[in-house]
């Protein structure tokens, strides 16, 4: 069983589209999360009920992607103010490189700008 706090650090998107850490204490929170799958791939999702959603992934009843890659491990989760915000952050994280996802999983937020620049340089 997960132990989830209403006082967790959360990420939110600023008007510039950047992720910054903040502390939010709201009764109706939603979650963005990252699962590490058996094949070492990552799955990013969002939900208003994290414990239920992780159990559904683990049981193989929710998502075809994770059902074929079980067991899964919850490696990152952040509370968001609303489900809409969680969904926006989910979409943003899904576009990130593996290295950038691993930086936030490790809590190394200071690496995110450099990892963004290095990816942009590869695309040029």
User: How would you characterize the largest beta sheet?
Assistant: 3 strands, antiparallel
- Evaluate the radius of gyration: 15 Å
CATH architecture: 3-Layer(aba) Sandwich
**Residues in β-strands, percent:** 25-35%
Shape: globular
Cα(first) to Cα(last) distance is: 45 Å
Extended strand count: 5
Number of helical regions: 5
Stretches where pLDDT is under 50 for at least 5 consecutive residues are: 1-10, 22-26
Please trace the helix and strand order, writing H or E for each element: EEEEHHEHHH
Structural class: alpha+beta
Helix content: 25-40%
Q: Roughly what is the average pLDDT, rounded to an integer? A: 82
Strand order of the largest sheet: 4-3-5
**At the first level of CATH, what is the class?**
Alpha Beta
CATH fold label: GIY-YIG endonuclease
How many structural domains? Answer: 1
């Amino acid at each position: 069983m997960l132990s989830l706090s209403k006082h967790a650090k959360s990420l939110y998107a600023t008007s510039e589209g950047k992720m910054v850490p903040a502390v939010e204490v709201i009764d109706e929170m939603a979650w963005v999360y990252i699962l590490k799958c058996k094949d070492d791939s990552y799955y990013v999702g969002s939900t208003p009920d994290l414990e239920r959603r992780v159990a559904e992934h683990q049981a193989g009843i929710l998502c075809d992607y994770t059902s074929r890659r079980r067991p899964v491990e919850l490696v990152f989760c952040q509370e968001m103010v609303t489900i809409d915000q969680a969904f926006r952050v989910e979409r943003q994280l899904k576009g990130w490189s593996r290295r950038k996802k691993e930086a936030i999983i490790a809590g190394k937020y200071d690496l995110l700008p450099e990892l963004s620049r290095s990816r942009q340089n590869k695309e040029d």
